[in-house]
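User: Okay, second chain of the day. Same drill as before: sequence in, structure tokens out.
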Amino acid sequence: MRNKSRIFGMLLIISAVFLFSCKKDVKVDTGILNTGNFGETTTALKDAADFPVGAAVSLTPFTTDNSYSGTVKRDFDAVTFEYLMKHGAVVQDNGSFNFTNTDALVTAAGSLDIFGHTLNWHQNQNATYLKNYSGITVPAATENLTNPGFESGLTGWSVFNSGNPSGNATITTTTVASEIHGGTTGMKVINPTAYPGSQWRVQVASILVATTPGAQYTFSYWVKAASAGGSIRLSTADQSGGNAQYQADQTIGTSYTQISWTITANSAQTRFLFDMGQVANTYYIDDASYKQVIIAPGGAQIALKLDTAMGNFITTIVNRYKSKVKAWDVVNEPFADNPVAIRSNTNTSITASDVLVWSNYMGRGWALKAFN
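Assistant: Same drill. Structure tokens below.
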């Protein structure tokens, strides 16, 4: 017993020295490597091993190079697709699936076992779709006005009222540099008569825009007056001229100032109107904008959307190939390298366009969700 203990202890020491002294680039010649004079070349590699032997394959060489595909089918029991079962290979920018190439490689694999790679990874996915769908990337609001800067005169704008009597106020455009805010043209409104309490007497309207009741929209513009003490308000109307909303009167000075007003739409179509009849003055208006307010989703909403997208992908691809795929890599590389921790946007490079770190948004339970 004493001798066996000494031998066992020496083996532990030798093993420890070997393990701690080895480096990746060190090659140790054990004397058993056969580098030539192979006497037998007909036995397939898979038949020389008592365990399954597999290889990674891709579509083009497998379907166009007979030597490549012949070697794979002769020497291996199974294959793993290098790319064609990953999210980025099949999910399109609109969230639909395109299995054309994956189906072709599955067919070409014939009777070979297939090991699926991979159902969830932070790389090689359609991250553009995932970010847009989940709300990680908040889209820019679309400008609804066709001529917001009056560069095409009053195209896209309508004069509803021009004083009392009609035509008392002059509504036109100006190209005088000191009278415009941006570009080369602005709107100029000369109102010689005050209509206190009847702001609508001098009125210019935007186009009707399709709006979603309950959604928010912001109308903004730049304005100044020829003399201090000007007054403008915004109002709204639907296609029938009803459902009006009114902004408070805005006092306008002689320097360009941006005015913004956000409303909650109450009809399926909405236009904004400049009401300039309150105070007699000359008004200069330029660089208007009419956009829906895009509200970024919260973290819980993003997590739920990503969970839905992940579940849809996993369920769809696993069901499609359940008669062919023997097993799946469900979660690939869940931990960052340095420091060793669950991946997040801070310990993982997220600059590549195909990267989305699921755990950063779904928490540590995302892997369990993938398996479920």
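The chain has two domains: 46-135+300-371, 158-292.

User: Thanks, on to the next one.
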